[in-house]
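ok trying this again, last paste got cut off
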Amino acid sequence: MVKKTIMLVCAAGMSTSLLVTKMQQVATASALEREIFAVSAMEAEEILADKTVDILMLGPQVRYMLAEFEAKLAPLGIPVVAIPMTDYGMMRGDKVLETAESLMGG
């Protein structure tokens, strides 16, 4: 199994930490080797300059940045998606991971 990296972006980088934990639990239970981490919107550019990710997922509070990240990452073949508000609000790690997996090609 190939290790894949999932980056979540939110306003401050903290509200998403619980979602990251839930996603990681599902990935581990499913025997998926995934690096899942969250950063603030302000840190995202800097992280992307140094780190290769397989998908970037935006928290609902920063979904307005979708077009900006798509423009930067589409040429690299990296999908960008806004996490659905209901999945984010209810901390559905399984659903968010499922979305990531489908966009990364499993």
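PB: full thing came through this time. The mean pLDDT is 94.
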